[in-house]
Structure formats: structure tokens, C-alpha cells
Fold:
Amino acid sequence: MLAAKVSGIHWWYKSDSHAAELTAGYYNLQDRDGYRPIARMLSRHYATLNFTCLEMRDSEQSASAKSGPQELVQQVLSGGWRENIEVAGENALARYDSTAYNQILLNARPNGVNKDGPPKLKMSGLTYLRLSDDLLEAKNFSIFKTFVKKMHADQDYCPDPNKYNSPIVPLEKSKPKIPIQDLLEATKPKVPFPFDKQTDMSVDGDGLSD
Structure:
């Protein structure tokens, strides 16, 4: 599998200038999508878009920084799904609390679990950062185990790798080069896919109800 990590420059996201993103090289503005062209480019190589700051909430950021991690994640993941590529992600900070875990769960399945099959919008993988002495403390490790089970939608462990959604296969040969006009077409902004306000697999709750 080939994956490309895209930085989560969330500060000044709510500013018209998007100054931090522009400084970092992401040409993303109110009237220009700077991330979907990256996803389109990755689609040529059957690659996965890997994003970060999945655990962050706007309310946790300083108002003076005009940060928008939730909206940024929503925009980037939506761009990847619109280009029909797999998206994966990771947390940016070491967090061991239910609020952070629930935010990750929401981003992993923004419209919840589908009882009739795989959800339409779902992340293909998650890298959890990171293994540490703090994580292995009794209270932290207990909630982490609950989080892992919720990531699996409360399903029991399955030892058969053939039943997983993304089997490991040889990487396909890249498609023909994408014309620059097609890449520029992807800069036209579109409304991101709607995300639920909270996960249906909360580490504080009982999981999916009947």
C-alpha cells in the first residue's frame, strides 16, 4: 500500500487568508480547495491519503488562532472520498480521554455504523500515537481498550484476515498522467459531506442500539 501524509495546518483556517496553510504550501482558500487536487493526484497511484489531528475539537483551541481542526478534517476527508480513494489518519497529540477518542471515532465513521453493511463514509485505517508509559497506566489503558473495541463497532476479534475490508495485494501500476486542467478542476470548492454531531460508538456509551 502507498500512502501520503498530509499535514493538518488548522490554525488560521477560519481566517479568510488561511495564512498558515498558504505558508506551508497548501493553496487552500474559501473559494479554492487546496486538498482535493492532492487526493485526485493520489488516485492516479491507487494511494491512500493519510491525515492528522483527528482528535482535535475547535472548542479546545485558542480563539485568537482562529483554528478549525474539525472543519479542516471534514474538508480533507470529503475530498478524498469524492476522489474515490481510501483515507486514513492519526491523532496529533497524546490524548487518553474520552472526548478525544470520541472525536476520532466520529471522524472514522462520520455517519455512524451501518447495520446493513459497511458505512458509505469510513476511514480505511488509523495510526494511534503513541505507545508510552502513560498509555499503559491502568485507567488510560482501560479506556483505550474500549476505544479499540468501538473502532471495531463492538464486534469480536476476527482472526481471518480475508474477512477484513482491505486485503493486502500488490500495488497496481499507476494510471496515465492526469492533465493539469483536470487537477485544476478539483480546486473548485464543494460543500463537504455532512458529519454527525457525535459518534454513535461513544466510549462512554453502550454502542449501537437496536
About this structure: DSSP finds six helices and four strands in the chain. The beta strands are 3-5, 48-51, 87-90, 125-127.
